[in-house]
Amino acid sequence: MKRLTIAAGMTLATGAALAQTPVLTVYTYDSFVSEWGPGPAVEAAFEETCGCDLQFVAVGDGAELLARLRLEGARSEADVALGLDSNLMAAASATGLFAPAGIETPAYDLPIAWDDATFLPFDWGWFAFVYDKENVSNPPQSLAELAESDLSLVIEDPRSSTPGLGLLLW
User: Fold this and answer.
1) Fold of 2-94
2) Where are the domains of the chain?
3) How far apart are CA 160 and CA 12, in angstroms?
4) What's phi and psi for 26, nearest 5 deg?
5) Looking at residue 18, what is its pLDDT?
6) Residue 105 φ/ψ, nearest 5 degrees
């Protein structure tokens, strides 16, 4: 009985300590939190710095992330949304769920001008076409060559995929 009381006391003490650790909930895209994505390393480094419990919630891609935030509305448990691209910013802003970050940012080195107090860029990249070098011996070297070739493309559905929409708008 004494051991059970001690164990119960230790369990309660551990639970209280865990409850006192602030939690930061970040909704993001699947590949960010995958074992090969940056999420695990970011989580470890961030938790060490902030003394908090960083909890990533993988919700698909940016379009699915925005759809989930719209569904949850003000009841969302997300503190941060990571993975909305520039094509989704206007729709995200229109939800009224986002607030200015309130932090001073450095001058960004981007190929476009960036002046937004709510949405902060964390990466930038161009679209690329991936090909099977066993089936394509002489790949096009430009978009014009690709357009003039007899090669066909497969893209993600732009209605439900952030990369698909980005490629279509590009």
Assistant:
1) D-Maltodextrin-Binding Protein; domain 2 (3.40.190)
2) 2-94, 126-170
3) 45
4) -120, 115
5) 54
6) -115, 155
